[in-house]
Specification:
- The chain has a four-stranded antiparallel beta sheet with strand order 1-2-3-4, with no helix packed on it.
- It is built from no helices and twelve strands.
- The chain has strands spanning 2-4, 7-14, 22-28, 33-35, 46-56, 59-68, 73-81, 86-91, 96-104, 107-114, 118-124, 129-131.
- The chain has one domain (2-131).
- By secondary structure, the protein is mainly β.
- 0% of the residues lie in helices and 60% in strands.
Length: 140
C-alpha cells in the first residue's frame, strides 16, 4: 500500500505453522524496505496480517488474524499506525480477515471469512470495530 513515492507499507506473516511464527510489517522510504519492529504478543501466539490500507500517512490500518491459546482460539486482529507507533486490537469475532479498505477515518471496512467458510465483515466507525450485517451468502 503506497502513501507516496517515498512511503509505502507492506504486511504479511512468516513461519505460519512452524516454530516462531509471526507477522511482518515493512516500510519503504523511497530507497529501501525496512522491517518495522513487530508488536509483542504472548508466547505461542500466531499473528498474521493479510491486508493494509491508509486514510493518511498517520492513519494506517492492517487486518488479519491471531491464533492464540495454543492454537485453540482464533481472533480477528487489527493493527493501527498513528504516525508514531503501531498498536493492536483484537475483536471478539472469530475469523480471518483478508482485506481492508478505508474511505475516511470513521469509515473503514475489513472483509474475510469465519468458521464454516461464511463471509465476515467488520466496520470501524472511528471508535470501535463492529460486526457488519451482510447478506446471507453461500460458503466460500
Amino acid at each position: 500500500m503506497d502513501i507516496s513515492p517515498t512511503e509505502a507499507w507492506a504486511v504479511g506473516f512468516i513461519n505460519q505453522g512452524l516454530q516462531s511464527p509471526g507477522q511482518v510489517i515493512e516500510q519503504w522510504n523511497g530507497t529501501q524496505w525496512t522491517e518495522y519492529t513487530a508488536l509483542a504478543f504472548n508466547p505461542g501466539d500466531q499473528p498474521s496480517l493479510h491486508g493494509i490500507t491508509a486514510v493518511s500517512a498517520t492513519d494506517i490500518w492492517a487486518a488479519g488474524s491471531l491464533l492464540t491459546d495454543g492454537g485453540q482460539l482464533l481472533k480477528a486482529l487489527f493493527e493501527h499506525w498513528d504516525g508514531t507507533a503501531w498498536s493492536k486490537q483484537t475483536a471478539r469475532f472469530f475469523g480471518f480477515f483478508e482485506g481492508v479498505s478505508a474511505d475516511a477515518a470513521n469509515d473503514i471496512w475489513a472483509v474475510g471469512f469465519a468458521t464454516g467458510n461464511t463471509t465476515l465483515s467488520e466496520h470501524y466507525d472511528g471508535t470501535s470495530w463492529k460486526l457488519a450485517i451482510r447478506p446471507t451468502s453461500a460458503p466460500v
